[in-house]
Write a structure and sequence with these properties.
The chain has 304 residues and is α+β, with helices and mostly antiparallel strands. Among the domains are: 109 residues, Beta Barrel (Ku70, Chain: A, Domain 2), CATH 2.40.290; 78 residues, no CATH class. It is 31% helix and 23% strand. The strands form two sheets. A seven-stranded mixed barrel has the order 1-2-6-9-8-7-5. Helix 4 runs parallel beside helix 6. The longest helix has 24 residues. The chain is extended and about 65 Å long. The two termini are 40 Å apart. The C terminus is likely disordered. Belongs to the prokaryotic Ku family. Keywords: DNA damage, DNA recombination, DNA repair, DNA-binding, Plasmid. GO terms for molecular function: double-stranded DNA binding.
Length: 304
């Protein structure tokens, strides 16, 4: 893995009687997002978090805090942190594959967090053999291990030169879709309405390219911070006009007509290069904000 990345977990990957040393690296992170502190408006100072007793309102220091499970309104079973720690299963540092299943059988609603899975120097042959065999067989692997103090199910699938290991939500953690969809109307769409919808889909087909997705909220926060630093105000955003067609068929005809005549092509297409430029501007904005924050720090003022 590239220098600067620290493995989140190291252990062994076992399939059958074969095992090889591996490491997991975080594949997705929110560390680059802009974050705020809570500030006292009157003094401009940062606010500290203090735990207080819900009845006496007295502060409770950390050494006097413990865990509790509510069994009734205001009634708790006290559980010491040592008792919680004792329930954590011991880890044998082994990610053991239990089954190989077809890729199509995996419902991504169970996906939790992705990790890059790489081999150590001595385990490359076994790792590559597993990766290539999974590619040829078009399967993914279900494995289990103690990760981050919990027994976790992990989905492993080939990804480029390595593997992706995604921790999985347990069945009890995934809510049933039955209740969410129970009020769905029973409608049968056919004829011109269905044909127009299919036409719109056909004319808007593209390819998945995550580089073209820009985080507009993060960019807006960056612009806000930059404007504050420069002592200027941002223009008020234009009010979004939401269309509310009374006739679905008419709206579909209008959309299909616009797409057919190319009226929707007036805006420039997003490209990976444009997206990278946008990402660069976001990083530059965050960098400017960070430098300004460092310049306002007590240590900097003392040095100057």
């Amino acid at each position: 893995m590239a220098t600067g990345h620290r493995a989140q977990w190291k252990g062994f990957l076992k399939f059958g009687q074969v095992s090889c040393g591996i490491a997991l690296y975080t594949a997705a992170s929110t560390s680059e997002r802009i974050t705020f502190n809570t500030i006292n408006k009157a003094s401009g100072n940062r606010v500290s978090r203090i735990f207080i007793d819900s009845e006496t309102e007295d502060p409770v220091p950390k050494e006097k805090q413990t865990k509790g499970f509510e069994i009734d309104n205001g009634q708790y079973i006290i559980i010491d942190p040592e008792e919680v720690a004792a329930t954590i299963p011991e880890s044998n540092k082994t990610l053991e594959i239990e089954a190989f299943i077809p890729c199509s059988e995996v419902d991504d609603v169970y996906f939790d967090k992705p990790y890059y899975l790489t081999p150590d120097k001595a385990g490359g042959d076994a790792f590559v053999a597993l990766r290539e065999a999974m590619k040829k067989s078009k399967v993914v692997a279900i494995a289990r291990a103690v990760l981050f103090r919990r027994v976790r199910a992990v989905l492993i699938r080939p990804h480029g030169k390595g593997l992706i290991a995604t921790t999985m939500n347990y069945d009890y953690e995934v809510r049933s879709s039955t209740k969410a969809f129970e009020e769905m109307p029973k409608l049968k769409i056919e004829g011109e309405m269905l044909d127009l919808a299919k036409h719109i889909i056909a004319t808007k087909k593209g390819e998945f390219n995550p580089a073209t997705f820009d985080d507009r909220y993060e960019a807006a926060l960056g612009e806000l911070v930059k404007a504050k630093m420069e002592g200027r105000s941002l223009p008020k955003p234009k009010k979004v006009e939401v269309s509310n067609p009374n006739n679905l068929l008419a709206a579909l005809r209008e959309s299909a007509g616009l797409l057919k005549t190319g009226a929707t092509e007036s805006k420039p297409k997003r490209t990976a290069a444009n997206a990278n430029q946008g990402a660069g501007r976001q990083r530059a904005t965050r960098g400017t904000a960070s430098k300004a924050a460092a310049a306002r720090s007590p240590a900097h003022r003392k040095a100057s």
